[in-house]
Amino acid sequence: MPGGAVWSWMPELCNSIPIMGLKIFAIRPCGRLWLRYEVYSATRWASRHPGGAPTYGYPLSGTPTYGYPLSGTPTYGYPLSGTPTYGYPLSGTPTYGYPLSGTPTYGYPLSGTPTYGYPLSGTPTYGYPLSGAPTYGYPLSGTPTYGYPLSGTPTYGYPLSGTPTYGYPLSGTPTYGYPLSGTPTYGYPLSGTPTYGAFM
Description:
By secondary structure, the chain is mostly loops.
């Protein structure tokens, strides 16, 4: 540890000799010699060298915490005060969706938890792109609209753009005659109203 020392003879004071981390007093009364050693403590050294505590992320021992480089400025998401922004851990690499440059990917906020459909591991759930807004039928809160599954492709009659095809509602189940697989039953068109004689 840093420190200093004074080498002194009694009763006559001689030149000071700096010694790292050690203060030595040599006292010589009555022709005898005693040596007293005093080791500086970290607290004592700090009290004599004011300047505040180290900047967040830069410890006094070891290497700087992940995200805090020795040159330039800290990486995006790692502030100099407080704690790192959500998604930017102090060990390992940032969580999925939180890049080290620019801003977090769509759906990954800096506070709270990621938006529905955007997991912290793996890739976003089907229907939740990393750019722009989620695909039609995939809301950012709650669960996907009826007919829009989280895996695979939307059920028959539920397109990714525009509105569901005639007979396929967003709540409840499809209208009678409009199945979720295959094509509508004979007499039940996808536009207009059912053919005469086909009952709903």
